[in-house]
Write a structure and sequence with these properties.
Elements (H helix, E strand, L loop, with lengths): L11 E8 L3 H13 L8 E6 L5 E7 L2 E6 L6 H15 L4 H16 L12 H10 L4 E8 L1 H11 L5 E6 L2 H14 L7
Antiparallel strand pairs: 1-5, 1-6, 2-3, 2-5, 3-4
Helix pairs in contact: 2-3
Length: 190
Amino acid sequence: MSTGQAAAGRPDLAVVQFAGEGTAVSRYAAAKDRTADAAWMHEVGFVERHHNGRLLLRGMFAGHYLDVDESDHVSQRRAGEGAVAGGLIGVLAGPPGIAVGLAVGGLLGSQAGDADEIENEPRALADQLRAAVPHSSSALVLIAPAPEVDEMLDSLSPRVQAIFRRSLTADEQTALDASLDAATPRAPER
């Protein structure tokens, strides 16, 4: 079986890389002008890998909508606690001390959050994307049947930096689904 052919019922994973952090979005927009009704246009995810190595994941990944920004990992609860503590300590120095204490305490507290206080990230997918997307670049990610992946690649070529494509095994698909299920926000219960 070639890498472009998925095993029966299993999707292909395609990562189409572009130089530059915002390039994938602009290439998608250009392709949308030509093929807006293509199925892959509604199933694609966007990845930006910043110069510091942190990822931004936004869009559809295997039927799950993600909006994860690793640069945005701060604890709001701990920021509030730090601001209150800093403000109380700043009381000793008067009004300017309160202002400085609130600011410094909030900043320090925001960085001291626990892992469960930040947004969930699909670790299995994020780890694969770190390996596939170089620093200071972007990518379109599609997890779909082979014909949809073929259509996307035809729409985007020849202006891509690199293409990573393969069929997912049943175990990989199960692990990916579990990772995405854990990271996808749940609607509030009523």
